[in-house]
Write a structure and sequence with these properties.
Length: 437
């Protein structure tokens, strides 16, 4: 009866989305009003995040039965959202009853799991792990249509979408699935890492890949503190999270200051939602480098944070959510015609040149592989040597664009962004659609 009543109230008060390009001189203002329900804030933020929009400011209010949120957003060029297709998409999605809808630009790729087999991997991180996993999938004739891998606090997790190399659909043969499971588990176990290593096939349905990675990492307790070096303490890159009581209003107040970066708001809201907290009020502001967020929260049962142990856990989990995508790694972006074994070859070359992959985003679109790798030197804490990039260039060859994005703390050559043409290696075999992290 409660569910039916909630549906009736929603039909009587459908979501309203207003998109305004006039009231702010430097941002598009998106206002969302709706009947309140648990998780609605995450749904809204997820849509904007999947479109790669930059949220400069946000104001949240959801006391009582009504939810209202205001975002000031820009695109990655720093401009207002002028594309009518994007504007119409945002309104259509946020005013609909559907929770999971395909991303407009395909960057996340929410599609029916009938089209692919979704594989989740988790284990202890080690150099060369991705290279070993991608080699196994290649040997098993699996095409990786997209994937993402995160590493944090010595834990590595990946969500991989694969298809059968012969049918280009999901792998359905039970014996073959069992073989995939067995071999990948053996790779993840490494040096008898039986407790951490896990490989599962996701249940049918729709899944948001990046949210699922947060859930996997959380389940593996990657938020538990590891030893922090003096260099990390002095770098100023560590997030500052506080959790305090607001006794007069019976809220818990969470404040965060950290380096700003793409999808920061999504990562925070995703973690609070999955920890079963509700944001009643909040404000988000970003400067040139730093982001400030403040939330008034309660548990879904209406209670604030009630113990010092719970307070500490909230702080740890939010710090982990911020850090999972934060890295001083060097960004390498590869764009080339896709083929079976491409990812295996690329990750092998990285490993042979002593590069450790800290995070990766793999995608295939129209027969073209578009991969991002965030790499560090596995033999030292020093920035990647430009000579290493030159070595990779020589090994890979021609006809593939590799863009190298150096951070200010790294030591680039004369240019901050370089493009190389690669190719001899890529032309060895026929091009198909395989990928992996």
């Amino acid at each position: 009866m409660e569910d039916e009543y909630a549906k009736l109230i929603r039909r009587m008060n459908p979501p309203r989305v207003t998109i305004d390009n006039n009231s702010s001189p430097d941002a598009t203002v998106i206002q969302v009003e709706s009947v309140n329900k648990h998780g609605i804030l995450l749904e809204v933020v997820q849509v904007l995040s999947d479109l790669d929009l930059v949220i400069k400011k946000a104001y949240i209010s959801s006391d009582g039965g009504w939810f209202m949120e205001v975002f000031n957003v820009i695109d990655h060029d720093g401009c207002k959202i002028r594309d009518e297709g994007v504007v119409d998409y945002i309104k259509k999605v946020l005013e609909s009853d559907a929770i999971y809808v395909p991303s407009l630009n395909g960057s996340v790729g929410l599609k029916s799991s009938e089209d692919y087999t979704s594989i989740e991997l988790v284990g202890t991180d080690r150099p060369g792990l991705l290279s070993e996993v991608s080699a196994v999938l290649t040997d098993l004739g699996c095409n990786v249509v997209d994937a993402e891998i995160w590493t944090h606090n010595a834990t590595a997790a990946a969500v991989v979408h694969v298809t059968d190399g012969k049918t280009n659909f999901a792998v359905e043969d039970p014996k073959r699935l069992l073989t995939i499971k067995k071999l990948l588990r053996n790779v993840l176990k490494g040096n008898n890492d039986l407790e951490t290593a896990k490989m599962t096939l996701s249940a049918p349905g729709y899944m948001h890949r990046q949210r699922r990675l947060h859930q996997i990492m959380f389940a593996e307790r990657d938020y538990e503190k590891v030893e922090i070096t003096e260099q990390e303490k002095e770098s100023g890159l560590r997030p500052r999270v506080t959790v305090q009581d607001c006794v007069e209003k019976d809220y818990t107040v969470v404040t965060m200051r950290c380096m700003d970066r793409p999808k920061l708001l999504f990562d925070i809201i995703c973690t609070l939602t999955d920890m079963q907290y509700v944001v009643f009020h909040g404000v988000v502001q970003t400067g040139d480098m730093e982001a400030f967020q403040e939330y008034y929260i309660r548990h879904v049962d209406g209670s604030p944070v009630s113990s010092e142990a719970e307070r500490e856990r909230v702080m740890q989990c939010l710090e982990a959510a911020i850090e999972r995508r934060t890295s001083e790694a060097l960004e390498l972006e590869l764009c080339t015609a896709d083929r079976v074994g491409l990812l295996s070859d690329i990750t092998r070359i990285f490993r042979e040149n002593s590069l450790c992959i800290k995070r990766a985003e793999i995608s295939t679109e129209g027969g073209t592989a578009k991969d991002k790798f965030y790499v560090t030197d596995m033999t030292s804490n020093n920035p990647v040597d430009p000579k290493t990039i030159d070595s990779i260039q020589r090994q890979i060859g021609e006809q593939a664009a590799l863009h190298v994005r150096w951070k200010s703390s790294q030591s680039p050559p004369e240019e901050t962004t370089m493009s190389f043409l690669f190719g001899n290696l890529f032309k060895r075999r026929s091009f198909q659609s395989l990928k992996l992290v």
